[in-house]
Write a structure and sequence with these properties.
mainly beta
Amino acid sequence: MLRNLILLLCLVATQASAGAWPRQKGSGFASIATRLEFDETYTLSPSYNSIYLEYGLNGRHTLGVDAGQSSDGATRTVAFLRMPLFETKRGNPVAIELGLGKSTNRSSCGRACPGDAV
């Protein structure tokens, strides 16, 4: 059953058209993901959950957030601003992105440890 579901998902997958160009003013994009792993008893369990958001501020700037948390409590959050620079002769977009974020590692002391922020 699981094998048939995986095959079906592969057959209906479409091409992802991502690029460095900004979102149109007022438009956005959201993605939620969960990574699953088998533990030592071969039980499937979530190991990392994440959310990715983009919002078009105007015709040139896109604001975004990329955040996630692992099953042991470690977190990562990055806010970013993207701005296109130019398009190459072959049509490839080139952009600059500035991000500011924080990561914590809770696995070593059961809570956010001093000095864990990156």
